[in-house]
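Sequence, please.
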């Protein structure tokens, strides 16, 4: 084959063109090089209300103590796939349309992949921010691969097993067995993440998301942690093992007091959850130390949070998430990074829809160019935000799941329930469909919820006086407050983008327009109006 060789003059011109191209891109490359790196560590079912953060000593020290903690962080929906979709899109469920953990519920359906995934913050980081994007762990419950990450290692389908699972590594199956040193999932994710940090390009910023299986069931601990916390029990807080007498029927159907065997089961589950978290703590330490050794920690934001909370015996419900109460909707949020002073705690109300806008803001991308419902809390973290103009409420939405046929073990319950335990206590049903306004301001700490059922059941809690939500005050609270909260709920349920960030009821800028409240009423809202009369 004949070889092709440039003549000297041509070589000079070619070299000159290369130099010109390089020089013309230097500002872009310099700007890109100085952009911060971003690490998001997402746990699965980690509560903050019933002690979930207690075993995570390293995490609290390396992220929380080194940065800022947000104790008032809430999810847009207390279930894995809708919540994770909210994190990725920065949208409430009514805008990203993921309602449960199934393909039928739009969890990583083809519709999601075509309409929502291209506008997720990792896709925007990759497309406009020149970021290397890496993902390892549980993405969405029904997904096998994703195109929004350059490198992606996913646990697909039935995806919270700690052994005997199959990873999808950039779309190729990688099977794992039950050898601890090679297969324990939390450690595998830690090692894959460390490898990425070691071999990634040093000339582009990176976004790394690590999504652990812990502390989701089946709560399989690493061998060295199996004997930890032998005397720990689920917290006996004021809501533990009591009857939810004034709550939605699904809560009222729980048997109180719980059987001794049920209490023993959930105590054991609580201990196992803590044990799995010790490996998450190790993962956090490995990632932070690797960044430090590579000299990248000072220019890296590290975020730690969860997709939803959890309960173990509250209101006699055995264990799960899905409910509207603090233990299920409140999650940990810890952040460290450039210009964030250590040992801070912010009382501001944050939602997981804010993670996307915040991460884009960290990368220098204007989130206002997107259709995201959330808002960036980066200015708050670095001391440049105005807390007096920060939002005072967020929306929580959940669509209940049930089976069309009765549970053979519990025929008396009839069809429509799901997540039932052997003693016929069920954690979900079709009409466990609700929407809430969670308000937090100097004037009020309030939760207002409506169920989409035949009763149009309403639950209201004053969390200043009643932090464990023991007493539903819907029938005793001032009528005007109910009307205002109902109005605000309707506004948030139809909001999109900027309209989701308008002033709440307890914000001085809030405008109450009662006549608009009943325009174009649905049958559900018509029933609610009749109840007010």
């Amino acid at each position: 084959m004949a070889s092709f060789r440039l003549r000297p003059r041509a070589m000079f011109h070619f070299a000159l063109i290369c130099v010109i191209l390089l020089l013309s891109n230097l500002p872009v490359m310099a700007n890109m090089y100085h952009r911060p790196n971003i690490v998001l560590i997402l746990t699965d079912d980690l509560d903050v209300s019933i002690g979930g953060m207690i075993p995570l000593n390293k995490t609290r020290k390396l992220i929380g103590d080194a940065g800022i903690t947000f104790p008032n962080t809430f999810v847009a929906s207390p279930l894995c796939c809708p919540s994770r979709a909210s994190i990725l899109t920065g949208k409430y469920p009514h805008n990203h349309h993921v309602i449960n953990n199934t393909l039928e519920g739009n969890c990583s359906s083809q519709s999601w992949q075509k309409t929502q995934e291209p506008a997720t913050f990792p896709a925007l980081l990759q497309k406009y921010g020149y970021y290397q994007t890496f993902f390892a762990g549980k993405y969405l419950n029904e997904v096998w691969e994703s195109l929004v990450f350059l490198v992606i290692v996913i646990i697909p389908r039935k995806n919270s097993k700690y052994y005997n699972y199959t990873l999808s590594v950039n779309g190729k199956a990688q099977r794992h067995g039950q050898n601890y040193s090679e297969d324990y999932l939390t450690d595998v994710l830690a090692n894959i993440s460390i490898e990425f940090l070691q071999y990634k390009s040093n000339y582009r910023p990176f976004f790394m998301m690590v999504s652990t299986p812990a502390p989701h069931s089946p709560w399989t601990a690493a061998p060295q942690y199996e004997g930890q916390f032998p005397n720990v029990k689920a917290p006996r807080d004021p809501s533990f093992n009591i009857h939810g007498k004034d709550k939605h029927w699904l809560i009222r159907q729980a048997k109180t007091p719980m059987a001794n065997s049920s209490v023993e089961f959930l105590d054991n589950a609580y201990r196992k959850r803590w044990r799995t978290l010790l490996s998450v703590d190790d993962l956090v330490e490995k990632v932070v130390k690797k960044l430090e050794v590579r000299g990248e920690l000072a220019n890296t934001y590290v975020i730690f949070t969860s997709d939803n909370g959890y309960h173990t015996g509250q209101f006699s419900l055995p264990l799960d998430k899905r409910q509207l109460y603090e233990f299920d909707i409140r999650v940990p949020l810890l952040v460290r990074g450039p210009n964030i002073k250590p040992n801070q705690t912010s009382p501001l109300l944050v939602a997981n829809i804010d993670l996307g806008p915040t991460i884009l803001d960290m990368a220098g991308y204007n989130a206002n160019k997107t259709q995201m419902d959330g808002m960036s809390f980066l200015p708050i973290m670095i001391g440049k935000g105005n807390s007096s103009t920060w939002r005072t409420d967020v929306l929580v939405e959940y669509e209940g799941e049930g089976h069309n046929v009765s549970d053979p073990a519990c025929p008396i319950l009839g069809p429509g329930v799901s997540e039932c335990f052997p003693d016929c206590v069920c954690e979900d049903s079709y009409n466990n469909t609700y929407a809430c306004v969670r308000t937090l301001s100097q004037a009020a700490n309030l939760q207002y919820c409506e169920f989409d059922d035949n009763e149009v059941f309403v639950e209201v809690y004053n969390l200043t006086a009643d932090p464990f939500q023991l007493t539903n005050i819907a029938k005793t609270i001032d009528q005007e407050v109910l009307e205002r909260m109902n109005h605000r709920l309707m506004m948030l349920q139809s909001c999109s983008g900027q309209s989701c960030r308008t002033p709440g009821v307890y914000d001085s800028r809030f405008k109450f327009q009662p006549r608009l409240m009943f325009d174009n009423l649905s049958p559900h809202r018509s029933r609610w109006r009749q109840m007010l009369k």
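The first helix runs from residue 8 to 34.
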